[in-house]
Design brief:
Layout: E1 14-19, E2 31-37, E3 41-48, E4 54-62, E5 67-72, E6 85-92, E7 98-106
Antiparallel strand pairs: 1-2, 2-5, 3-4, 3-6, 6-7
């Protein structure tokens, strides 16, 4: 006889909205990321260029049921203004699993 055990799986639902997209860091604009989570967790936002090089990273403390905002000024972790182009972002949960990803355009005028 085969015995079945049930496993309760909790899904971590995080939504991410970024705006304005495109944005102009040279003109003083910042890209805002709004993250909403169902539970309290720590998350990590990574932004990459088209060559998959890490540009910047941020740690977020998400509180269940509320929206957490963070911003990116268009500068790398080395305090260099990034060039025009498309950049990729991903949000990882505390277990380092990707829960969201997207693109953001930078247009320096």
């Amino acid at each position: 006889m085969r015995r079945t055990s049930w496993l309760l799986v909790l899904l971590l639902a995080i939504t991410v909205i970024n705006y304005p997209n495109p944005f102009n860091p040279k003109g003083g604009q910042w890209a805002t990321f709004e993250c909403t989570s169902d539970t309290n967790t720590e998350a990590f936002l990574y932004i990459y260029d088209m060559s998959a090089r890490l540009i910047t990273r941020q740690t977020l403390s998400l509180t269940g049921g509320t929206t957490t905002k963070t911003a990116w000024n268009g500068y790398s972790d080395y305090n260099e203004l990034v060039g025009n182009g498309i950049y990729f972002y991903q949000l990882l949960d505390s277990a380092k699993k990707r829960v969201s990803r997207g693109k953001i355009w930078v247009i320096n005028n």
